[in-house]
Write a structure and sequence with these properties.
There is one protein chain. This protein is α/β, with parallel strands linked by helices. The chain has two domains: 306 residues, TIM Barrel, CATH 3.20.20; 84 residues, Immunoglobulin-like (Sandwich). It is built from twelve helices and 16 strands. The strands form four sheets. It has a seven-stranded parallel β-sheet with strand order 5-4-3-2-1-9-8. A four-stranded antiparallel β-sheet has the order 10-11-16-13. It has a three-stranded antiparallel β-sheet with strand order 12-15-14, with no helix packed on it. Helix 7 packs parallel to helix 9. The mean pLDDT is 96. Bound molecules: ligand H79. The site of ligand H79 has 10 residues, from loops.
Length: 421
């Protein structure tokens, strides 16, 4: 039996088919270029952070090029930071002056981005930070950049989180009414003291659903909605809530930081990234992979290299990803492999992470497979069943043995497509 996630209010039908999205973290932190939490990590006061606002001028910004790079990688949706924790807004919000239109760049960044990604047939998602280290009514706590500043903490007495909540609701309303259909709203994040009471999450969710019926809402308002969002780790199995499988999406970075980080050297390889995508789908989940564009407005060369590499793999292997999910229980992945399964075409995909020597034994598959081929070139893979040659090299009843070429096919992760009977 194929596992089905628990239904929710939002429309996740496209989401569980599309599987692969682009996260974009872009804000003033692209200029310091050393983590989107730089204001927090270095306890930078507003007056000192201001220099990034005064110098923000992404003159090479070309959202059509971003969308083309994402589509080329095989991504089907995108989620962009309309505002991150620093408080800076990419769109021309009526509720603040802290926005792109007031920087030297002088223009709204969000509308052109939405248009460009829609032109590539990609779904539109907005990330919006619940946390705000710039808003005058947002109180200073132990997670705030000014946590060690006594005067700033004393200032809490004059602050009114109710006014901040109105700002949060008002900006959410702007985002959900000014950009046409929004497919995903990705709030981030809540913790003790900054959570569902402060945001009035129940009412906020009601407003969101009324403004954008069908929208996919994430789980970070302290009330679970349509998707669970494991961050920077790969779940070991299909993500469950109260023991039941749910729709989920792992969000991952190229190099550890979400915002552009010039000197980070921990970039994942194309190989590793392709495996992470496969791994997610093999457990019934999605992958939302992040780019942090530069302060000039470009995806840097490392990001473009990884996206192109993934696209090269997706070009030949996309049908083992789109429309696919975890394989039915009766099929267990062999050693060093992941399985994905398309319930509509009834094809099973064996993703071979480590290429074995000429035989791949599939326990319990005997009698269930009609035809097998390598997905990259549609070359037949012969099936031996239970071989009786070489003096009884006995693989066991019920085991189907695939005869592989000695050489690993010239692709990042080879996939064998099994047509089930
Ligand atoms: O936008 C990206 C990150 O900047 C943001 N989410 C992704 C998508 C993010 N970064 N860190 N986190 C979310 C979680 C941070 C948790 C901690 Fe804490 C902040 C650990 C310590 C301080 C939460 C608040 C737990 C204790 C206090």
């Amino acid at each position: 039996m194929t596992l089905h996630p628990v239904p929710t209010d939002g429309d996740t039908s496209w989401f569980v088919r599309d599987r692969f999205g682009l996260f974009i973290h872009w804000g003033l932190y692209a200029l310091p270029a050393r983590h989107e939490w730089v204001k927090n990590q270095e306890r930078i006061a507003d007056a000192d952070y201001e220099k990034y606002f005064r110098h923000f001028d992404p003159d090479l910004y070309d959202p059509a090029a971003w969308a083309a790079a994402a589509a080329g990688a095989g991504m089907k949706y995108f989620v962009v930071t309309t505002k991150h924790h620093e408080g800076f807004c990419l769109w021309d919000s009526e509720l603040t002056d802290y926005k792109a239109t007031n920087t030297p760049y002088g223009k709204d960044l969000l509308h052109p981005m939405v248009d460009a990604f829609r032109a590539q047939n990609m779904k539109v998602g907005f990330y919006h930070s619940l946390i705000d280290w710039h808003h005058p009514d947002y109180t200073v706590d132990h997670v705030h950049p000014m946590r060690d500043n006594e005067a700033a903490r004393a200032g809490n007495a004059q602050k009114d989180m109710g006014r901040y909540r109105e700002y949060l609701w008002g900006q959410s309303r702007e985002l959900l009414t000014g950009f046409g259909k929004v497919d995903i709203l990705w709030y981030d994040f809540s913790y003790e003291g900054k959570g569902k009471e402060q945001w009035q999450s129940e009412g906020l969710i009601q407003m969101v659903r009324q403004l954008q019926p069908g929208i996919i809402l994430n789980d970070r308002l302290q009330i679970d909605q349509d998707i669970k969002t494991p961050e920077q780790y790969q779940p070991r199995e299909w993500v469950k809530v109260d023991g039941k499988p749910v729709v989920w999406e792992a969000c991952q970075t190229f190099s550890g930081s979400w915002g552009y980080y010039r000197d980070e050297e921990s970039w994942k390889s194309v190989d590793q990234l392709v495996r992470m995508l496969i791994d997610s789908v093999s457990k019934g989940g999605n992958l939302l992979l992040n780019v942090g564009p530069t302060g000039r407005g470009e995806f840097d060369y490392r990001a473009l290299d990884r996206l192109a590499g993934m696209g090269e793999w997706m070009k030949r292997h996309a049908r083992s990803i789109y429309g696919c999910t975890q394989a039915p229980d009766e099929f267990q992945a062999p050693q060093d492999c992941r399985l994905t399964y398309n319930p509509e075409t009834r094809r099973l995909y064996v993703h071979v992470f480590a290429w074995p020597f000429v035989e791949l034994h599939l326990d319990g598959f005997a009698g269930k497979v009609e035809y097998a081929q390598l997905l990259n070139d549609a070359s037949e893979i012969k099936m031996e069943g239970r071989p009786d040659w070489q003096g009884g090299h006995d693989v066991g009843a019920g085991t189907l043995t695939l005869r592989l070429p000695v050489k690993k096919p010239n692709v990042t992760v080879p996939v064998i497509e099994l047509f089930l009977k």
